[in-house]
Write a structure and sequence with these properties.
- The protein has 180 residues and is mainly α.
- The chain contains 5 helices and 2 strands; from the N terminus they run αβαααβα.
- The protein has one domain.
- The longest helix has 55 residues.
Length: 180
């Protein structure tokens, strides 16, 4: 077993050495780095899409806020010590409150689901468009790869890069050219 591991390690080292030798013999490899979030936020179409998404979310939030206020008002009327409700009227209001609370929870879940779906669709569409613009920049400027930096909020993919490798501005220009 130990000899098999040794053979595997030696074989891997030989393959790695050959690969490194090929890299030194070949032309320099150019790799670029972009910030996809910045491309989304600074392109004309990206800005419009983000504003549209914000409006979509705000419209739903206004409906939720209105429903929530209606529930609070109904609850206050039930808890009002000066309110002289008969037991039947009180039970009717409590039933009304429970029904509205259930409807509110259902609507809230549905709106959240709709917003998440719309956000996923937006990200998918714009990731594809950004990739197309990045590919055009790579082909034009001789990059073999363009890598997304990632973000601090999710996961930073590129931990370090020289600022000269950042092609975000070129991708933004190309994106705007492709998506007027």
């Amino acid at each position: 077993m130990r000899s098999a591991v040794s053979v595997l390690a030696v074989s891997s080292a030989v393959v790695l050495a050959q690969w490194v030798g090929l890299l030194h013999a070949a032309e320099p490899v150019r790799v670029g780095v972009i910030d996809q979030q910045m491309v989304m936020e600074r392109t004309k179409a990206g800005k419009l899409a983000l504003e549209d998404m914000k409006g979509y979310s705000m419209t739903r939030q206004k409906i939720i806020n209105s429903d929530e206020q209606e529930l609070k008002d109904l609850q206050l009327s039930l808890e009002d010590p000066n309110g002289k409700l008969t037991e039947a009227a009180r039970q009717e209001k409590e039933e009304q409150f429970r029904g509205k609370a259930e409807a509110f929870q259902h609507r809230l879940q549905e709106f959240n689901r709709e917003v998440q779906v719309k956000q996923r669709e937006l990200v998918t569409e714009y990731s594809r468009k950004i990739a197309t613009a990045a590919q055009a920049v790579a082909q034009k400027e001789g990059y073999v790869a363009i890598v997304d930096k990632g973000s601090d909020a999710l996961m930073r993919i590129v931990l370090y890069h020289q600022p000269a490798l950042d092609v975000t501005q070129a991708v933004i220009k190309e994106f705007d050219r492709q998506n007027p």
